[in-house]
Structures are given as C-alpha cells and as structure tokens.
Amino acid sequence: MLTSDPAADCAGSCHRQLHNRFDDLTRRHDLETALAESLGGGSDFADLFGVIVDRARHTLWLFDTRGGEVASSVARVGGLTTPKASAILEDVIRTVSRTSTPAVVDARVSVGPARRYLVDRVVNGTDVVGWLVMAEVRHPFDRFDRHFVERAAAYLSMHHRLHRAVRRSISDLTVELADRLIKGHSETVELREEADRLGVDLTVFKVVVLVDDSRVVGKLGDATTLARRLSARTRADVIGTRTAHGIALLVDVNEGDRHGVVDFIKRAVLALSPKDGVQAGISAVCSPVDISDAYAEACEVVECLDRFDADHSRVVTAHDLGPARVLVANGNIASIRRYVQHTLGALWNSGEDEQVLLDTLVEFSHSGHSVRKTATAMAVHENTVRQRISRVKKLTGLDVASDPSDQLAVHTALTIVTLRNRPHPLWQNRNTRTDGVRSVIPRPSPV
C-alpha cells in the first residue's frame, strides 16, 4: 500500500508556489522593463500602445472620456466587436472613482463573446483623460491581468503628461522665437540654431498677420491656439506671439503667386474670426530678413481700421489699402478728411446720381482703368462708361481715364471713404442691384 510523505508533499507545494511566484515576478519585471524602455526611449503613443498590445493576453481598447475609440488591439487579434464604451463606463466610473485598482465589469450587452471587462483610468494629474479596457474572452482573468491593466494605464498616463509638458515647452519656445523675429533678430546665429531645433524654417518667405482681438478677448484663444487653427486651415506652418497690438502670426508661403497667397490667407483669417469685434491686418509676402518690416506694415493696416469704427469684423491686406495705408495710418485725421472732401466732394454735392458715378469709379479702378472691362462688369455699353468718366472729370477736374496721378488720387480717396463701417469696394464680392447696375459701395457721406 502506497502512502504519501507529508514532508515531501509540503516541499512540493512550496516549490510550486515559489515557482509560480517567480514566474509572476518575472512577467511583472519583463512588463515593467518593456514599458519603461518604450517611454524612456521617447516612443510616440502608437509605439507605446504597440508594446502594451504585444504583451497582453486579452484584447485591449483605449477610449477617450466621451467613449470614442482611440486605439485597440482588435486589428491584430481579430474576431471581436468593439463594445459600447458607455455600457462599460457607466458602472466603472462609480467603482474606479473610489479605488486606484482596475475594476471588473460584467458584460451587460450581447455584443461579441466577451464575458467581463477589466477597466482602469488614464489620468493627467487628477483629471481622467481616457479609459483602458481589457476583454475577457477565451481565458479567465487572473491576478497578472489586473496588474497588467494597472501598469499599462499608469504608463499611458505618464506618456500623456510627459508629451503635454513637452508640447507646452515647445509652444513657449516657439512664441518666444516669433517675438524675436518680429523684432528683427532673424540674422543672429543663435536664433537660427534655435529655429532649427524647433522645426521653424527661416529660409522661406512669410506673411505677417496681426489680429487685434481686444474687443473679443478670449474668443480666439492664445497665440499658439490661433496659429494652430490657421495652420490647419491653410496647411502652412504658422507660429505666433502676442504683442502690444494683438496676436502676430507668421505664415510660411511660397514666393510664387504673392497676391494669390495673401488673399488665400485673408479668407482663412476671416473664416476663423467671429462676425464682429475682430480686425486684422495682413502684410505683403516678405523675405525672412524683412519680417519686422512686414509686422510694421500689418500694424499700419490695423491702425487704419482703428481710425474708422466698424460693427463687423474686418480682415484687410496692405495691398487692399495701397498708398492710402501710409496716409491714413500716419496722417492727421482732419487733413485726411479734407483730402477726401477735396477729391470726391464735388460728386456728393452735384445733385446728380452720384451713386452711379461712384460705382463706375470703383469698377473702373478695379478693372485696371479699362473701359471695356468696366462696361462688361456693369452690364452697360462702353460709351456709357465713357460718358460717366467724362462726367466725373467735369465735376471733379480729375482725368481718371488717362492721368496716373488722378487715378491714384481717386483710388486713395475711395479707399479712405469705404473704411468707414462698410466693406471696401475693391476687396469684397459685389452685389447685383435690381436695376442691373452692380452696387459696389453704399451711398457715402463725407468722411
């Protein structure tokens, strides 16, 4: 008759326990080492999540706080439907909020073969930024699975905090770089080396956008946020900084179609602006060494807008204003009023249909002083345009048909007039009037 040896049985049991404990510690050590090496090696999120997936026995999902799927291992293992995060998180939020360990949640919905879920939070400080979910399918959860989810969530949290800190540091350095560029420091070796480290190309041409948001504080965000939004809309590299005059943005552009690219940026800025309260000036395309001059140019545009209040947001380029920019930004306002009155005042006092004459002047200037193009744009005969231009000469003494000085004077005066709380006739799309004549400016009053 065979009998067992209690001492031998006890020794065997202890040996198995020690062996299992050793295996468990080895697995924990291997997991910790792999996660630490991935995080310490500067891996991006996809690489870190890949390391986690490679060592997981079960399927994993990472959800954001709204229940949207951020990443999963389903593509690698296949055969499992993504669960509804809301069905899992409703129970787990109450449980996990009271403990630091992962929570086990029974599958309440008949979606896929999962029986239970292990869930832990991904945090940034005290804020929950996501949820890591493991599904129990073929094998039941064991103690290591709980440890696995806890450590994976911890490393995802550390990765999130680390990269947010890095982004903030890069953002601060980029803001400082933009500030130094608009102050004219682009030629220093130190600044060029710093730009290279930040990935900012100081060899490409740029456009400076100055956004005066003093009347809508908080709606546009800080310089970094607005630069990111403009970059997304224009698909160009943009950096920004806040100055005494507003948010200055430096947009990388190609040197090719200078007017076309400036107009494109103008439309993008206008699309990002609220309907009222914002006024922005945009410089011409400039070389890297002329950024400070371009910033001064954008400041002059905003100064022009400051002199004439408006009840709507305005985005204006230096090219839109032409030579009127220098006059309005730097001149005496009383002298500017007298200049406009002297140039166009006779039309206001003529008692005739000055609106038609003004519309014709605007279209004539817009078309490059071409009678044919003006007639086509206004749907009238060419002789009608000539008669109106002749009438303008008779009333004002200005020969806009052939005298370049008079053409410049009229263009400048019209620009100043239309800065007054109305769109500029040479910038905006023109509307069609019921009488067939396209009205490009409202009936003006003296400045």
Automatic annotation (TrEMBL):
Classification via InterPro entries: CdaR-like_regulators, CdaR_GGDEF, EF_Hand_1_Ca_BS, PucR_C-HTH_dom, PucR_C-HTH_sf
Location of the CdaR GGDEF-like domain: 184-302
Gene3D superfamilies tied to this protein: PucR C-terminal helix-turn-helix domain
PucR C-terminal helix-turn-helix domain span: 357-415
Pfam families reported for this sequence: GGDEF_2 (PF17853), HTH_30 (PF13556)
Protein family according to the UniProt entry: Belongs to the CdaR family.
Protein name: PucR C-terminal helix-turn-helix domain-containing protein
Top-level taxonomy: Bacteria, Bacillati, Actinomycetota, Actinomycetes, Mycobacteriales
